[in-house]
Amino acid sequence: MADLSTISFTLNGRPVTARIAPHHTVVEVLQNEFGLFGARESCGQGLCGCCTVRVDGDPVSGCLFLAAFLEGTRVDTVESLARGGVPSVVQQAFIEAGAFQCGFCTPGFIMMTERLLEEHPDPDEDLIRHYLSGNLCRCGTYPEIVAAVQLAARRKSEARLDKAS
Amino acid sequence: MSVTLLKTHPLMPNGQVGRDVPRLESMAKVTGREDYTHNLRLPGMLHAKIVRSTVAHGRILSIHTEEAAAVPGVHSVVTCADIRTIIPEPYFGPAFHDQPILADGKVRYVGEAVCVVLSHDPHIADAAAQLVLVDYEELPAVYDEVEAATSNVYVHETLKPAGTFPDLKHLEGKRDTNVALDYRLIRGDAEAAFAQAAHVFEHDFTTQQVMHTPFEPMISVGEPTSTGLTIYTASQSPSFVRIEMARLLKWPENRIRVKTSHLGGGFGAKLYIKLEALAAALALYTGRPVRVALTMEEQFYTITKHATTFRIKSGVDTDGKVIARRCDVWWNGGAYADIGPRVTQKSGFTAAGPYDIDNVYLESVAVYTNRPPAGALRGFGIPQLVWAYESHTDLIARGIGMDPVEFRRKNILRDGRPHATGTVMKDAAIPEVLERTAERIGWDKAFDRGTGTIRRGRGIAIGFKASISPTTSVAIVNVSADGSVTLYSSTVDMGQGSDTAMAQIVAEVLNVPTEGVCVVRPDTDVTPYDMATLGSRSTFHMGNAVRLAAEDAKKKLDDLAAELGLPERSNIPVDQLFKKRYGMQAGNVIGIGSFIPTYKSPDHDTGLSDNVTPFWMIGATAVEIEVDTETGHVTVTRMVNVCDVGTPLNPKVVETQISGAAVMQYGFTMSEKMELDAGQVTNASLADYKIPSILDIPPLMESEAVVATQHSGPFGAKGVGESATFGVSPAIANAIEDAVGVRITSLPITPEAVYRAMRAAANQPLEDF
């Protein structure tokens, strides 16, 4: 098949290089070159959101996004969120709200929620539902996901207030 | 959006069972570190790409593999002839040995696996697979379940029952039929009672073929080993896989090791044996590990939920008591039986509903067609039945001018009364579930019925299910010398939270924190036998086995203390006990539990049994909806789901199971349908096959488990994963009639279907196109 080339990018804060073919997707490169399985392919069409990663801050579907386009970018995956075994506020909220069952879609929902709360620190339920409508959960854990996002928003807001005072 | 579970369920004395323990694997799931089989990479592993049939029924004239085999990087192209060098009789299945590992001279549905291209690079295998050409002689095909039951187009030449189930034995070698099981139940004299009835109602209902769409697509990896074979597989039934592979290979069970991880969803798709036989045969054929991983599209060609036709007839007396019911159910099993015959019987015998009816005649038939195979899907056939009998129940109530809840109340099946099979009901909170559902939705309160183009309605429905039986679960509890505890069980956690629930049982018995219990993933070399993770059986069956195993370990610890001369209830820490016994940190205490409930199989001629199930599951749904009369669009504004789950082991997980099951059934009700054109699924992708998104589900969802006890269950618990699927579809159809006076009898309930029904009711029917 096609010839390999080398790309360089920043992965979860560290500079990396990878040998890729033109048809390789972001998910394939993360899984096969870096052993990162948090972004995963399910529908294969960019519809379910299980493969969500952030490229220069923007969420993309890693099952469609070609690895070749990662050259020179900053890539963040769900694996970047927990620090020293401590989950992020959003991750902790998902645990406490019981916002997952099989867990296959969970990293995608968490990555989108991180971005949602950066853009809209105090989202109402309607906004949460619209923002997360590109992610699907076949276990149907949607009520708990909404609760988790609301919990995370509240915690983040409390933390901001603490900081301010 | 709110989910509320009444917090009235008891916490057990040691504070473990009855507590909202977050799933033990929570951190792994939120950090993306959960190790699904999907993630497995083995040295030297080959990737398999399946070439699939393009015709619904045909003889294979030739398979041209040369061009694909010549592609650089292709290891080999494998056909059924090659599989036969490893497995001479390559036919598998839990009820019938009817499914070839690869098509054997004939194909029976579009999408059937015909041959396989292997390469170290999945893209090469994929590209080369496009180059395989197959010539077919097309045969007439049959797709409809009612037509197939009497058609002279036969999907199989002869029937090949597996021999596992006594009620299938009489079908051995039968020719010229598509009927893979004919179950009949005769109670009283239905015909005579119809003749005496004041009113007789008869309706037909249908359900559509749908698919599980587990988000971790199905995957099995075969690996040859020095002693035999290891199969890593996203399976709900590792013990079954091992036994079936041992049969196929004519090996002892202990040469085959089957390992599962947590599953990215199952819902019945990953049951019995699916890709495992192919992965195993390819691994042994090539001498290398082989990964067979499906795409989302390919799952539509692998296993689905039965489409059904249900003709139901009831005779009612002048007081509104149902005195006779006749049920005829046809189950569209597709081209291979899978577990369809069990669905047909185990669910079939409940087809008359949770009502006290003296005269019942019931026929339930499994039918082969040239569609993708159908098997188990969350509810094991029950949602299809409840769809019909609860729509029918509502129509009767309206027909005799009785309130639908009052009509149900009058006929409901109560503890102490015999079910249609003759089994006397016990620990089945059917009336309580009905009453709580009606109460929560405010059935007796005034209701805003809408105005103008938005009309509002309410509907309610209740269903029940028997547990598949008789089935066995075995568990081992190991107490290590430091007092830490490990549970070995082959129950597969596919998201339902079984690892956590089982750990809670162990922790409650041994009085240790649940969070410290280690649950070993199913591995047939390590974890003992379990029938399968299906039909909401694990909490009851494995839960009982785990409790017995933990109690056995506890007794052995007590015996050890006695041996060492310690007074009873001395409460000496477990690690001190081991140190006293062995002089150092050494040794184990192993507790074993094995559980199989009693059961009596239904009589072949009458379908009757006085012990047909170890427990009953009950679920009801009530909804408030809005219908847009200009578009037919239905919005469910509020949904209440109430179940009898016995006493919840983990109320939070129970709540999530209730709402999750209801959301899934909501998809099967409102949008999901496999569209077929000459047997070809034309919407095999999430782009065209719409499952519910976070925007689609009702803004108000409420879940409740009634206060109940399953006295034979572990700590009063029983199964929960399916119960909230039962009532969803008919509750919505009943609400639509309440809102706009039209009756929908086929699923899914699309805006088009509702709009067409409204136009037809107004004597302005839309033209078909």
Automatic annotation (TrEMBL), chain A:
Protein name as annotated: (2Fe-2S)-binding protein
Keywords: 2Fe-2S, Iron, Iron-sulfur, Metal-binding, Oxidoreductase
Domain 2Fe-2S ferredoxin-type: 5-81
UniProt key word Oxidoreductase: yes
Upper taxonomic lineage: Bacteria, Pseudomonadati, Pseudomonadota, Alphaproteobacteria, Hyphomicrobiales
Top-level taxon in the UniProt lineage: Bacteria
SUPFAM superfamilies, alphabetized: 2Fe-2S ferredoxin-like, CO dehydrogenase ISP C-domain like
One Pfam family cited in the UniProt record for this chain: Fer2
Keyword Heme recorded: no
Gene Ontology molecular function terms on file: 2 iron, 2 sulfur cluster binding; metal ion binding; oxidoreductase activity
